[in-house]
Amino acid sequence: MGLSPRPDANVVTVDPQSQESWVTTKLDLLVNWGRANSLWPMPFGTACCAIEFMATAASKFDLARFGMERMSFSPRQADVLICAGRVPFKLAPVIRRIWQQMPQPKWCISMGACASSGGMFDNYAVVQGIDTIIPVDVYVPGCPPRPEGLMYGIMMLQQKVMRERMSDKSLRNEMEPDPRSQLYIPPPLIDEVSEPFGNAIHQTRSGL
Amino acid sequence: MATKTRTVEVDLSTTGLDAQGRPQRVPLATDEAGNLVPINAAPAVEPELEGEHMLINIGPQHPATHGVLRLVLELDGETVVRCVPHIGYLHCGFEKIGEYRQYNQIIPWTDREDYLNSPGNNVAFALGAERLFGIEITERCKVLRVIASELSRLISHCVWLGTFCIDIGAFTPFLWIFQQRERVYTMLESWIGARLTTTLTRVGGMGADIPDGWTEDLANFVRTFPKVLDECSTMLTKNAIWVGRTVGLGAMSAEEAVNYGLSGPMLRASGVAYDVRKDFPYLDYETYDFDVPVGQAGDVYDRYLVRMEEMRQSIRILEQALKRLPDGPVNVDDPRVILPPKSKATSDMESMIHHFKQVMEGPRPPIGEAYVAVESPKGEKGYYMVSDGTSKPVRWRIRPPSFVNLSAIPKMVEGHLLSDVIAINASIDIVMGEIDR
Amino acid sequence: MSDRFLPVLAGHAEGSEVAPPTTPRNVPYRDGTPNPSVDALRAKFGEAVQRADVVWNETTVFVDKARVGEVIQWLHGEPSQRYDYLVDVTAVEYRDLDRPIEVVWHLRSLPYRRFLRVKALLFKGQPLVVPSVWAIYKSADWMERECYDMFGIRFEGHPDLRRILMWEQYKEGFPLRKDFPLRGRFSRSEQLRQILALNPEAKYSMEELTVLEAYDELSLEQRQRLRAGEKVGE
């Protein structure tokens, strides 16, 4: 609950000083409606979450009703990168390049615990969350997330798309990584975010 | 042991057979008179048409590589001259982490390596750990584990069939077969709570006993699943396009298959009747009445037939298991290994101590090592565990069938066309999670 | 149907009077019967067979590492043994760092339905080198590469020993060694920085580039490196 009222995500504040006119808000609505209801996913499926993604796309939990049945395996024709599964370090430059190959407008859904944070794989081989390499819009937790969970994540993304405004110039900026290190985020922040927590430290003691 | 041979009559419903009854490809060349002639009757390629070989890269992100596999092909036109597979794009350090986890904590990890066969992997690991501990499980547990393994074999072959069809170009069986997987998922979910990564077993027993009414659900499934198989089989087995796309591809002879370490349907399609369930049995498989399909030509079509038949045999085993499911406890009655029930753990001092020791430290096996292999849908899946007396293994080795099966791909695709590479790759039934661990 | 494709039955060399195999019950910890191959090995190789253990009814034979190649060749070819199936090649390092690393070969005889584990000890402080069995079993190809990748054990006679699971220029070490920490030697940001800068898929390895050598598309330096036998790198 909290002491302060939660900002309602569906309320759009209109700034009278802004450049927005009635025409642009209606245009926004139209464009966002088109984008949100025809998000073509690029399924970057690596492991178990990819199987749940396939199950979500199959008949019982049909993704076609979200306009997502056209799986685009070519990043050039995709809107949303759904990273389903764990991403080891060897795969990191691949996902980075695929993200860079996708044209704007593009979004990213990080499906599953391993893509969101490294999941149960806190070891030498796995990237501790793909948000250290590409910008993520929606995180769907679960190991693997149920199809309903993934659909909820997709619906959240649709709401996020509907809230976009043309006058917001920062939206479609392509983030450029630091040319030397190829990292978006400063290294100390990456290290801090990837630190183990809770009883993960206890679990790394071997031989007990 | 007696073997039966069953010939699949390939009287096709469409034309497309040549004089010897083999499917004929569409002719692509014309002779001087402008008539269409079969491609192998075309004149020799003129020297200026012979060009350099092409190096192309498939993957690691590609819909048809069944995961993150990278194949670098050297092509002469459309024909593959050489193939270099690159793996490791899903290497997640399973074996290293296994050294930092108690035996029961490793079971969720076994779900994630071959994620299409999670219950089967759980069973395999539990068998290995029980061998290391020296525990004999109860009869009910054995039958439940057989049920879990065979259901898992069914759903794994279902994924294989669906994705194999998509790779060849047929989309419909994918939807039909995934609907059946959803039915199994619902059953698994009511049993253990999870659809895909089940963590079904524990050392010494199972995570949970089946709920009431579960056997009726399973009986219903067993009764209706063969019809779906028949539907898919009708669409595919005698289809001229299917046969033309799959016969003669990627053939491995029996000695080659054994030498390359192939196992599972790949080995049996090449004619070697080796099934871990029959030759090194576990869970009383010798008391079940089932056949092991063995192919003749070792090509992609035979692997398809072997797997289809294996699904039918799995249904047979499930029927028998349902009939013989005994009552009784599911977990072994050893407080050092199995957690006591919560009601006792909160009231009885001894149970509380057992509970504490098992959760904090974990059960400890004697010093030793064990290798236990099961017949997973992909092949011979083995877990090799070395114990030094502590609650965490010194070494946990996964013997991945798909890893060894995939290593034969450079041999299998030589001389084939590019689209055949995709078909052969799909016929191996690889799971990158298991290959890379 | 040609001879190539006649069905081969496992256990066919056992003879029909042997009962079909059953699920092992009440497997003894230490008192199991050893595999008959142990006696045959001792008779043939004598001193090279250092020790034989039976744990949980599985026989383990410790063999002198210099003669492992011969021993496995004999086990493969000898008609009374016929270990035609290599199940696994792996290694074990113990937590007690003074103990040697054990290289383990799991062998199966399909005709006789037997299972044997062969081990060779590699003492620390000496080079970690064992003979490769690739010439005997083609399945050893990738298994030995993985063993090299994870432990740093070199297999002499392997045609192409390079890393398989980690990327070929991996600098942190050999992951499954006990002195390699679980999370790796470098910090997370450093690990990311290294692999992103390396970008291995953007380049073909030298072995793959041999296809271009004949057509003068490689630079002179690359052609020289190829002729020197370099396989890795771009």
Defining traits:
B: 437 residues, alpha+beta, Cytochrome-c3 Hydrogenase, chain B, three-stranded antiparallel sheet, 17 helices, 45% helix, globular, C: 234 residues, Beta Polymerase, domain 2, five-stranded mixed sheet, two-stranded parallel ribbon, 25% helix
Lay out the secondary structure.
The complex is a heterotrimer of chains A (208), B (437) and C (234).
Chain A: H1 22-36, E1 41-45, H2 48-57, E2 80-84, H3 92-101, E3 107-111, H4 113-117, E4 138-140, H5 147-162, H6 187-193, H7 200-203
Parallel strand pairs in A: 1-2, 2-3, 3-4
Helix pairs in contact in A: 1-5, 2-5
Chain B: E1 29-30, E2 36-37, E3 54-58, E4 70-76, E5 79-86, H1 94-98, H2 103-113, H3 118-133, H4 139-168, H5 172-192, E6 201-202, E7 205-206, H6 214-236, H7 240-246, H8 254-259, H9 265-269, E8 272-273, H10 276-279, H11 300-324, H12 342-345, H13 349-360, E9 368-376, E10 379-387, E11 395-399, H14 401-406, H15 409-413, H16 418-428, H17 432-436
Antiparallel strand pairs in B: 1-2, 3-4, 4-5, 6-7, 9-10, 10-11
Helix pairs in contact in B: 2-3, 3-4, 4-5, 4-11, 4-16, 5-6, 6-11
Chain C: E1 8-9, H1 37-45, E2 49-55, E3 58-63, H2 68-77, E4 85-92, E5 101-109, E6 114-122, E7 129-131, H3 140-151, E8 154-156, H4 188-198, H5 206-213, H6 220-227
Parallel strand pairs in C: 3-6, 7-8
Antiparallel strand pairs in C: 2-3, 4-5, 5-6
